[in-house]
Amino acid sequence: MPLLCDTSIARVSTPEEDLPKRRFSHPEDARWHIGEAIKYHEEQFGLAPRGMWPSEGSVSDEALEIMASNGIRWVATDEDILFKSLAIQGAKRKVASHPDRRIIYEPYKFKRGSKSLSLIFRDKFLSDIISFNYNSWEERSAADDLMAHLRSIAGNLKFGSDKQLVTIAMDGENAWEFFADNGRTFFETLYAHLDDDDELEAVTISGYLGLKLKRKTLNTVFPASWINHNFKIWIGEEQDNVSWDYLSMVRRHLVKYTKEFQKKGEGNSESLRKAWREFYIAEGSDWNWWYSGKAHMGSDNPFDKLYRTHLKNVYKYLKKPIPDFLKISIA
Questions:
Q1: 131 phi and psi angles, rounded to 5 deg
Q2: Nearest 10 degrees: CA dihedral of 318, 320, 325, 327?
Q3: How far is it, in rounded angstroms, from Cα 288 to Cα 325?
Q4: How far apart are CA 75 and CA 198, in angstroms?
Q5: Which three-class secondary structure state does DSSP give residue 59?
Q6: CA angle 73-64-48, nearest 5°?
Q7: I need a surface site. Which of 15, 84, 117, 157 has the fewest CB within 10 A?
Q8: Mean pLDDT, the chain, as a whole number?
């Protein structure tokens, strides 16, 4: 979302980054994606989502403002984003260069203009140890170890507050497929322990926010993802930048064709709607993830072929010639 809003935001975390030749800046597209995500959630569950976990926890002021304006009440991201954000605010007032880790165990209020939401920061250590380490443990022992970590955190917080929030946020694919029986024994042991514990309680984020505890305010957020607190997984490498340039060129053509259709009174045609949907699909975060050697090179990279197929479909639906550049593999 931050990169759809403006690819130049990548320079905040990596000032020397090589960016695409064409700056991509379309917050209206980010707004479309968020709106469609909310609509889909309503169709499936009968109510709008209260919170969002954006792709890899990626945030920026502009992206958060769009989420807030669409009724999103909370967004989760990584603890490093909090530390970096406080460092930005520390330019105007004194903030410790090595902040106390206990500050991640409370939500913050992000406010920009008239829009606001709550920001939740995950405990990276706990999230990663579940994602990448506990799968090699005996599952009951892993659950016991996690409880020990949680009790240790609670013990360190006693002098501050008895209602702090420990957030664990992670990609399920990184963990459960490597656990025996998808982690069932781990889960059953963990939740049995939580049921029996007098100090710890499992909560939803929305349920916790319903306690209406006092929150500190962040006026700006450090723009980055949970991956090394930057956006390098998607932008900066040669193939990634070519991909962004392809996206920019196709969008420029699509806007031109849309105006032509509108002049002919066909602005609401099904073919135009399908063309825009193919383009929006090509804006997904997964495509660039697999460029620059992260998947097979050349014709063996299935993501490259699929990505360019969606962009080609823009022209096919509108019965326009496919540009030659889309016939050349980025990988």
A1: -65, -40
A2: 80
A3: 17
A4: 28
A5: strand
A6: 35
A7: 15
A8: 93
Q: What is the phi/psi pair of residue 50, to 5°?
A: -90, -30
Amino acid identity, residue 154? A
- 132-170 b/e with 16+ CB inside 10 Å = b? eebbeeebeebbeebbeebeebbeebeeeeeebbbbbbb
Cα distance between residue 205 and residue 289, in whole Å: 29
Between CA 108 and CA 119 the distance in angstroms is 5
- Rounded to 5°, the CA angle 168-105-219 comes to 110
| Least trusted range by pLDDT, from 31-35, 57-61, 176-180 | 176-180
Q: Are 76 and 122 in contact (CB under 8 A)?
A: yes
Model-wide pTM > 0.85: yes
What are the CB-based long-range contacts (under 8 Å, 24+) for 145-153? 146/190, 147/190, 147/193, 147/194, 147/197, 147/200, 149/125, 150/126, 150/200, 151/199, 151/200, 153/105, 153/123
Query: What are the angstrom distances between the C-alpha of 330 and each of 123, 142, 298?
Result: 37, 43, 8
Q: Tell me what the mean pLDDT of segment 162-175 comes to.
A: 87
Q: How far apart are the first and last CA of the chain?
A: 23
H-assigned helices in the chain? 2-5, 10-13, 27-45, 61-69, 79-89, 124-132, 139-157, 184-196, 205-209, 238-263, 270-282, 286-289, 302-317
**CA-based nearest residue to 57, from 316, 251, 230:** 230
Beta bridge partners of 117: 110
% the chain with pLDDT above 70: 96
What are the C-alpha distances in Å from 272 to residues 29, 77, 196, 264, 307?
16, 36, 57, 12, 19
Query: Which two structure tokens, joined as six digits, stand for 85?
Result: 């954000």
Residue where the block lists tokens 């097979």:
296
